[in-house]
From TrEMBL:
Residues 11-139 form the Gamma-glutamylcyclotransferase AIG2-like domain. This is Gamma-glutamylcyclotransferase. It holds the Pfam family GGACT. It comes from the Bacteria. InterPro entries: AIG2-like_dom, GGCT-like, GGCT-like_sf. CDD domains: GGCT_like (cd06661).
């Protein structure tokens, strides 16, 4: 189902890892070579307990940042973000799944990136009774 890409991918972040948010400096400072605005088409954003969840849904989009890790920091950053998101490949108790998706850059081009999406059981619960973040932008909730 989920396979590792042969090349390191950038990360699309949409919540607490965005600039100015609680986890940005803790996890990304000094580990990135580029950070730029991006949009994840085909997804909607839901409010969580202090952090958001992106759930796949055609016709919507989530706003965030496309983060490129410095090559020498990639493996450590990937492991750190998996720990932060409590993602373990194949674990049925995951809250998130790390998946490769196409993200739209500010210039309209697309790039394949890792995205942490709500795991199926979490996504089902959110679709049924979650609170959507209108406009798909975590920063707009303030």
């Amino acid at each position: 189902m989920i396979t590792e890409d042969p090349e390191p991918l950038p990360f699309f972040v949409y919540g607490t890892l965005r600039p100015g948010e609680a986890n940005h400096d803790l996890f990304l400072r000094g580990r990135t070579s580029a950070e730029e605005p991006g949009r994840l088409p085909g997804a909607v954003l839901y409010d969580g307990p202090g952090y958001p969840y992106a759930v796949e849904r055609p016709g919507d989009e989530v706003r965030g940042e496309l983060v490129t890790a410095r090559p020498e920091a990639y493996a450590d950053l990937l492991a750190a973000l998996d720990r932060l998101e409590e993602y373990v490949p194949g674990d049925p108790h995951n809250l998130y799944l790390r998946v490769a998706r196409d993200v739209v850059r500010a210039d309209g081009g697309t790039v394949r990136a890792w995205v942490y999406l709500a795991a199926p059981r979490v996504a089902a619960r959110l679709r049924a009774r979650g609170t959507r973040i209108e406009g798909g932008d975590w920063l707009s909730r303030r």
